[in-house]
Amino acid sequence: MKIVLLGSGNVATHLGTALQEAGHVIIQVWSRDEVHAQQLAALLNTQAVTDFVKIDLHAELYILAVKDDAIGTIASQLPFTDQLLVHTSGAVGMDVLEGVSENYGVIYPLQTFSKSKPLNFKIVPVIVEGNKPEVVEKLLRLAGEISGHTVVMDSEKRKALHVAAVFACNFTNYLYTLSEQILEKEGLDFNLMRPIIMETAEKVQQFSPGQVQTGPGVRNDIETMQRHLDYLKNSPQLHELYQMLSQGIVNFHYKP
Amino acid sequence: MKIVLLGSGNVATHLGTALQEAGHVIIQVWSRDEVHAQQLAALLNTQAVTDFVKIDLHAELYILAVKDDAIGTIASQLPFTDQLLVHTSGAVGMDVLEGVSENYGVIYPLQTFSKSKPLNFKIVPVIVEGNKPEVVEKLLRLAGEISGHTVVMDSEKRKALHVAAVFACNFTNYLYTLSEQILEKEGLDFNLMRPIIMETAEKVQQFSPGQVQTGPGVRNDIETMQRHLDYLKNSPQLHELYQMLSQGIVNFHYKP
């Protein structure tokens, strides 16, 4: 397929790379930011454009991989009629593209992307939605070429999936950040925490997280939790989070 | 070394196995629970005892690997004089063993252990403390035989380290649990979440978590966060956690 990438961020970079590796041709990279457009175009060995009027209208697919709150604004400026246009967001409904083209949909790769870290796209779940059966079919075939895990899902379910991912990924990474803050305050190295972080993630690859919960909360060890809360008494945010999360674990797990 | 294991849970199991693999001899497993004592003794091919009076007093090391709130009670019943006794807890001070023996300390392996999952002990940080320089030296040497990452640390620092681990491991696993709950409610498979969980943990093996934060909070995407909060409006606990954690991410990351 001849594909135009609209966007130059983490998702555009990883998705563009995966599509190219699967044999597709990225004929243009468009971005409002000229430097970013040129960087990604150089990486994909293709042309960079920054004007809407310079976008090639004869590609077979247009992938709009921009920030969620920019999707609607940018889409409305595309001079499309029936070009196949998809966005890549978990949180935004497909209908934001209604009226922009006769053929539209979503390709949402459920992963946390950083430009600086390569990843194996084959194991990334790719969620697909389309406004017509032919669109769904086409997008599903394409998704199957870059990933071994493809699912058709409507916008409502995709939104729920995205909320679940915020808990499992974004909030988790923030807990790592808080953990690092505690260590830094004590002059301790974050390397101490890296193995337990890996093991915690690895465990739930085989088990359900409810089966492998450990720590003071799961055994309702009130003394330890109180000692920890004492330690956190001068950090109101950490104190409150500790209390809420521990109470959640106790409620979920502890059968007196 | 001839070692007696006091306890039969996850830590006793993994630590006993690692010590045996390093060439040490577990001469007894003591546990109040006869079935558990026998199970672990069978695994380690040694003797199980349940009476304090049957504990062999001529071992070179006694490892008390029991629940935090049982350490003091059990230690006080041990008929020791100068036997080398350690506990394995992150949260409990070394001084809980004061008066039980003339030689005591702590060997705290910083990891989340499940009996059902084998792990590579070599990468587990092992934290050591002792009441005398000779004890520290002896425990450090032993720790170095089972792990490539050993650190001497006092009880106060170890407590802080344990709090940091609760955030990075126990609370993280609970977020996985909440994520699974959201998926279950929608009839979606937790397998969808497993790759992003692994990737989130893998990223911070190389980077600082603050460098790789993603999601709506880090870009202060108010619309997406509001859509997510709407979705969670009938789950007060999830709604409150979402708000607190998102606000934390915004405060930490967003520079308007």
Helices and strands, with pairings:
2 copies of one chain form a homodimer.
Chain A: E1 2-6, H1 10-21, E2 25-30, H2 34-43, E3 47-49, E4 61-64, H3 71-76, E5 84-87, E6 103-109, E7 126-130, H4 133-146, E8 150-152, H5 155-185, H6 194-206, H7 222-231, H8 236-253
Parallel strand pairs in A: 1-2, 1-4, 2-3, 4-5, 5-6, 7-8
Antiparallel strand pairs in A: 6-7
Q: Would you kindly provide a written description of the structure presented here, covering whatever features stand out?
A:
The structure is a homodimer. By secondary structure, chain A is an alpha/beta fold. Chain A has helices at about 10-20, 35-45, 70-75, 135-145, 155-185, 195-205, 220-230, 235-255; strands at about 1-5, 25-30, 45-50, 60-65, 85, 105-110, 125-130, 150. The first copy, chain A, is elongated. Chain A starts with a strand and ends with a helix. In chain A, about 50% of the residues are buried.
